[in-house]
Amino acid sequence: MASDSSNRGFGTHAIHAGQQPDPSTGAVMTPIYQSSTYAQSAPGEHQGYEYSRVSNPTRTALEGNLAALEGAEHGIAFASGVAGIDAIMKGLRPGDHVISTNDLYGGSFRLFTKVFEPFGINFSFVDMTDLDQIEAAITDDTAMIWAETPTNPLMRIIDIRAVCELANAHDIDVAVDNTFATPYLQQPLDLGADLVLHSATKYLGGHSDIILGAVCTSRDDWAEKLRFQVKSAGASPGPMDCFLALRGTKTLHVRMDRHCDNARALALFLDEHPKVGRVRYPGLESHPGHDIAAEQMSDFGGMIAFSLTDDRIEAAKTVLSNTDVFLLAESLGGVESLIEHPASMTHASIPPEERAKIGLTDSLIRLSVGIEDITDLRSDLEQALDRI
Ligand SMILES: *Cc1c(COP(=O)(O)O)cnc(C)c1O
Questions:
Q1: Cut 0.85: pTM above it
Q2: What molecular function does GO assign, one term (predicted)?
Q3: Residues paired with 199 in a beta bridge
Q4: Low-confidence residues of the chain, pLDDT below 70?
């Protein structure tokens, strides 16, 4: 008899959950089941798999793994993070109202306003660090609160437990985009959320070599709706990408520790630098969300945003064009360090007036701090800042 494995530690789950040696060969690593279809012994008699749009054994292993990491009953993998968000939104009905944060992943904002608003779902974007603003936005039609914390790119911290308590009192479901924190640092379901969304493209995959998404939930009704979406709308990830995501999660805990250590060191360095304005890193005690972050996260993550004392876009461009270890690229969460300019890159789809309103200024620079040697990362930023 196998012992109960559900109470194992995070690192053990990361490496083992959802997986066992392949029953036909003993292969220790889950094979890449690169097959679209499955032989049946008689019509309708199969071993649980019929067609890979619906399910695939490599994907099943990944889904079990991600569910264990989030402490969820169900994991549902998607071809991308936004495909997971799309599937959640399709679980709502025309006329439903969603409250979200006004400093949201640009792709989520685009999907909400350009795809789902025309289909009759209504959105309010508020400053979710202020519970009163959330409460004021609630209407009889509010069906969901969509939170993201830390936010992208302003690194604001939303109090997940407080938001869930408010939502609960009004019978509203809460979804949390946990991409920045990962389940190693933050577990929204434990804090009362109904759904957790991941862009596994980022830290879960961890090596910038896949596009993949996942939703974790312990709500059977939501899991059923989401699986129905996978089957009906077909945003299923391929087995190779699921294999790579599984390889990624095996080292998630080890990578995250280094991401956090490196980011903390760089945030302190930037905070002291005369050419740097405000440093947005929840690990800094001066961060307005520091106490809540310390409460709901086990560490502060690998993402930093900062502005320059010289707020002209040219100053930011000088820094962005002169780093050597930090590569100028969108995305985040890989082992390599990346630098980017939200106003012209990841958040260009947010109108300039909206960007200005929330403080997403032209000199704002976002770092995805990788796991290279900290001395190299620090001297790379130092020489780039010296050129302003
Ligand atoms: C990247 C990202 C997404 C979208 O994920 P994809 O895998 O690119 O589709 C959603 N939310 C956040 C916070 C992200 O960083």
A1: yes
A2: cystathionine gamma-lyase activity
A3: 213
A4: 1-4
